[in-house]
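Moderator note: this is an archived Q&A kept for reference. The question asked for a predicted structure of one protein chain; the sequence and the answer are reproduced below.
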Amino acid sequence: AFALISFTIWVNPVAAMITDQALAGERPREDVVVAAVHLAAGNFVGGLTGLLLLERGTEWIQFLTRLLGAHGGGLAGTLWLVAGVNCLMALLQTAANVDRVSAVLTKRVATAMSIYNVFFLVTSVASQVYAPILGSISDHAVKTHHIAQLVPAFRVVVLGASVGVFAGFLLMPTCVEIYCLAITRMETLGSLARVFLKLCTPRGVLALFRCLRRPSLFGVRFRDFRALPAGLVWGNCLALSITTVGVMSSIYAGAQLSGHLARTATLLSAVVNGLATITLGIVVTPTAALITDECAAGERPVRHIYAMAVFLTSGALLGTLLSQLVFVPASHFIMFCAVWLSRIFTAL
């Protein structure tokens, strides 16, 4: 996840900017082909280089695993900190919903999407960071025979996600202004990394404060819901209700099992979250991208993009609240799948 964030800061935004400029006739279209060839060559060389890092990476992961496992009891006291991190990441993920509004306002769709990817991958890093911490807390609970305490503890972490989404809902107008500012600076500076560095200066911080706006629904009314495909909002709500608790349900299921089944249950989180991600990739993301393109091209009224941002964010809030109900049933389903898989491969 850290590697992907590096990619989205140094590589993807520049490629997106080249694409936007080529589409706008500001540079030759052949530059897009040249960029694609160089990126493909870099992927090939990077894959070969990865072979050299395999053993060192394994040793590093073993070291971190022992380090976390030895401090499971102490990490239990940092639960509110983990919930705070989850809150912050949910805030960033929710703020990314309004990136499409900025894409339409600036007519720089590819550049806006590259900035969106940064925030999306930051949330991925968060899940990669706090998941091992929650796993260590679970290991400690198993050793001390306090497995039942995991349910209220994990519900606190889930609550953090709901608080973060609600904060993102209130900050939607501010986030639109910040995204527009970042897109404009990206055109000037030519690198997203430079944009971030520029925004960290006193002038940059002042510019961010100038982006502050009062909470608003952009004039969106409930009847505007009919302008959007129903599957877009409900699919987003369902997927987020699963991804919010996917890792925690798997860890809790693993705590209730024993031996190799515990490991199987924990690793099933990737499958559970993967199914939710597929739902987002099939139902939500393509439809949202289509509406964004149509609004940018003038084929839809701009109010539709505002309506999409508001209803996607509302669906995200509802999804995190529903995840409190999904948490325990999801853990039982994961336990069932782990036992079922074990029986199948034992029979083979």
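Archived answer notes: Residues 303-347 form the longest helix (45 residues).
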